[in-house]
Structure formats: C-alpha cells, structure tokens
Amino acid sequence: MLQQTQVERVIPKYEAFIKKYPTKGKLAKAPLADVLMLWQGLGYNRRAKYLWEAAKGGTKGIGPYTKAAVNVFAHNKPEVLIETNVRAVYLHHLFPNKGKVPDTEILPFVHVPKGVEPRVWYAALMDYGSYLKKTVPNPSRRSRHHTKQSKFSGSDRQIRGAILRAVLTGKSVQGFQKSRVSALRKKLKQEGLI
User: Which residue from 142, 104, 149, 106 is spatially nearest to 125, judged by alpha carbons?
Assistant: First the structure.
C-alpha cells in the first residue's frame, strides 16, 4: 500500500484492510471485487490484485523490491533495499554534486550496519529520505531512474480509476472521451481487473 502512496492516505486503508482480511486465508477467499472496493482511494489497483493473487499462492507482481521489503519488514532480514526515500539519502550524502546516478552506483553502499535491526534501519532511512525531500532540493531528481509523474487530472490513471469505481458501484463513467474510456476498459478487462 505504501508504494507511491503517502502514509497519511494508507493508514486508514491499511487498518480497514487488516480488519477485513486479518489472515492470508481470508484474503485468498475474498472476491476480487471486494478487495478492489476496499482498495479504492489508494490507486494502482493492480497492487491489490497482485496481493490477492499472492494470498492464493501466486508470485506475479512480486519483484525484487517487494521481495526485499517483505524480508526486511516482515522477517527482519538484512536485505539490500532501495526505494525512492532510501535512494534520496544516499544521493544526498554520497553523490551531492553528481546527476544521473544509476542505482548500480548506489547499491554497493546500501547495507544494514552490524548490530542494527534491518527493519529499524530501513524505516529510519525512509523517514530521513522523506524529511530530506521536504528540506532540501529533492535528491532523487539526480537519480538516473527519476521520472516526473504526469499530471493526474485527465490522465489514463484517473480514467482507469473512474472505470473501476463505476464497475464496482454499478454507476457510469462521466466526463471523459468515450473512445479513451472504451480503450482503457478493454485494457482493464485484459488485465483481469474488471
């Protein structure tokens, strides 16, 4: 839930999600539509579908970052973990005057210090990276992997969310070009989200 979503938006959704699906088994037995309905407001709905599929024993959507994050935060294992806020810390302190820094140059420095709990270390790095972004020019902009997210209003992301909401609530999609809605509806169907 926290991937590309602010903590303030996640907390109430996380609490509601855990209350409704306290175990992997309960999530696996739930209809996908119910999971997607509860996920509404977080965006990136395929994350909900991947989580639902993972509860059923699938591995689609579990890439290197997710695997490392689960090992760090759920199992307290000292994995190499890099995400936007962790990256910002290393860019700020180790590459202060360099641009277009690839993760391959950062990764050799990313490790958990001896005697420190991995989940505590990475939580601190993430918090510090978030703080840096509010107090200095965003160090992540100097990453080769940095991309500026397109405007949400009128975007495919907005229309996809509107289509999914309409399907889940039985309402119609309003205010968007019909050909775009039709094309995106077809794509959502192909992805198994509707």
Answer: 106
Predicted pLDDT of residue 5: 84
Structure tokens at 97: 């005057």
Which domains, and CATH codes, for the chain?
7-55 (1.10.340.30), 64-142 (no CATH), 156-190 (no CATH)
Q: Residue type at 20?
A: K
pTM of the model: 0.83
* 6: DSSP letter: -
Structure tokens at 160: 């996809």
Distance CA 146, CA 162 (A): 27
50-57 CB contacts, 8 Å cutoff, 24+ apart: 51/27, 52/27, 52/28, 55/21, 55/24, 55/25, 55/27, 55/28, 56/28, 57/28
Q: Per residue in 68-108, pLDDT tens?
A: 999 999 999 999 999 999 999 999 999 999 999 999 999 99
Contact present, 100 and 144 (Cβ < 8 Å)? yes
Backbone angles phi, psi at 68, to 5 degrees: -65, -40
Name which of 72, 185, 62, 63 is nearest 126 in CA terms: 72
Residues 142-177: tens digit of each pLDDT: 999 998 888 999 999 999 999 999 999 999 999 999
